[in-house]
Amino acid sequence: MREEPIITIDGPAGAGKSTIGRLLADWLSFLYLDTGALYRAVAYHLTCNGYTGKEGELAELCRRMQVKLCNKAGDLRVIVNDEDVTMKIRTERIGLLASRISALPLVRDLLLSLQRDTAAEGGVVAEGRDMGTVVFPDAEIKFFLDASVQERAGRRYHELLERGDGVTLCAVESDLLIRDRQDTERPIAPLIVPQDAVRIDSTGKTVSEVVDLMKAVINRRWNSHCIPPEIA
C-alpha cells in the first residue's frame, strides 16, 4: 500500500473535474495531474505542425514533441518543446482534436508512462476520462463527476466568454455532445464509470458542496494516519 493515495476523478467534459481536482490537491498538499491537458498539448502540437491525420505523419510529429507539466508557484503550466501553451490549448477546436487522438494507441502509449511515472509514489489527484479504469486501475480512491449537458455547457460557455472567446451557448453545447459521443464510443479506453468509483452529480451544486462531498469520502476511506490532522 502506498503511503499516500492516488485519487482519480473521471467524468465528461465540463463536469468540473479540473476545478475540483485542483482544490482537492491543494487541500491534501498533493500533486495535481491534469491528464486532459496532456492530450490537449499533443493536439496543439499536431495542429501547429500541419497534422492531416496520416498515421506515419502522427508518429513523426510525436517523435519530435516533448510535453510536460510544471508546477510554478502553485499554478500548473503545460509545456510543449519549451513553449508554455497553458492558455493556448483551452480552445474548443483543440479540445475536439484531443478527444479524437486520445483513442489512438500511439498517443496513449506516449502519455501513459508519463502519467504512471508521475504518480508512482502516490500523493496525486489525477483527473481525466479514464484515470480510474485504465491509467490508475489500482487507485485507492475513485470518483466519477458528472452533470447535465445543459449545466456543463453553461459553465463552459461562461468560461470561454471570460477569456474573450466569441462563442454561442448553442455551439458550446453542440461541441460537448460531440465530445461526449467521441469519449464514450471510442474503442480504446472509452469514458465509463469505474466499478469502484463514487459517483457525484454536480448539477445544481456549488464547487464547495462538491468538494465537501469528496472530502468526506476521502476521510472515510483513507486511514487517518495517512492524512494530516489539520486536513482530516
Mean pLDDT value: 87
Structural class: alpha/beta
**How is the quaternary structure best described?**
single chain
Q: Which strand order spans the largest sheet, edge to edge or round the barrel? A: 2-6-1-7-8
From the alpha carbons, calculate the radius of gyration and give it in angstroms.
Answer: 17 Å
Count of helical regions: 9
Number of domains: 1
In which range does the helix fraction lie?
A: 40-55%
Molecular structure report:
- By secondary structure, the chain is α/β, with parallel strands linked by helices.
- It has a single domain, classed as Rossmann fold (3-Layer(aba) Sandwich), CATH 3.40.50.300.
- It has a 5-stranded parallel β-sheet with strand order 2-6-1-7-8.
- A hairpin with a 2-residue loop joins strand 4 and strand 5.
- Helix 1 packs across helix 9 and helix 2 packs across helix 4.
- The chain starts with 5 loop residues before the first strand and ends in an 11-residue tail after the last helix.
- The C terminus is likely disordered.
